[in-house]
Amino acid sequence: MNDEFYIGWEKKAAPDTGRGVHKIVVALWALALVMPLTFAMSQRLIGTSVFEWGNLKTISGILQTEPYPHLLVPRPGRAAGEAFSSYYLVAPWKFGLNAKAIAPLNGKSVAIKGTLIYCENQTMIETKPEWIVATTNASPTRETPPFISLGRQTFIGEIVDSKCYLGVMNPGRLTPHRACAIRCISGGAPPILLVQPKDGLPICILLVSAEGKPVNKDVLDMVAEPVEITGDVERQGDLLVLRADPRSYRRTK
Questions:
Q1: Domains of the chain from N-terminus onward
Q2: pTM: predicted TM-score of the whole model, two decimal places
Q3: Which of 33, 219, 225, 246 has the least C-beta neighbours within 10 A?
């Protein structure tokens, strides 16, 4: 029988004890390397959103101030079957663009200087009222598309602030982003319903009241939560709008 025991004042541990400690140390080192990698791989992937901070560009199109300020940008050759792309318009920091300040330019061809924010197939311009000017082309080069009714539909998704989600914050959604989203929506950033299909790209739907008015203050208590909304859907170009009374929104958890 050869029982070993540890003697603290010895310079070297007994052979079996030393081999056992060595195995434990190696296992702990391996665990320390594997755990961070496993944790990182288990996290949600960050979306491909971009904020071109510091890079000012000039974009031309037809200005629309309702239901929220947006720019209809002509597509060459009616790409993807639509004559226009719709770019949301917001102000710097956590504010939406003042619709009253640009109301005289509503429906006119304009040139806008600003910074692009985009994610997947959605685009936004951060600008200022003084950076929006009428172009020499007094009338639009194409007829402004009307809002087309797509009928009454039901969606389940998450209410997010469009500015952060599209690129200013990454990822700009879920509970960790709730406080920031509330501040942005309170400041006038367009609230959108983010719908995640099982297959395909996320769908962003602009939220307005049943009368087509902004709902910023009415949705704050449901931001960053899964909700079910039933309402009338409209489309202008590639802009989807959901008309529904915020009091009818239903939490799904």
A1: 49-134 (2.40.50), 148-251 (2.40.50)
A2: 0.77
A3: 33
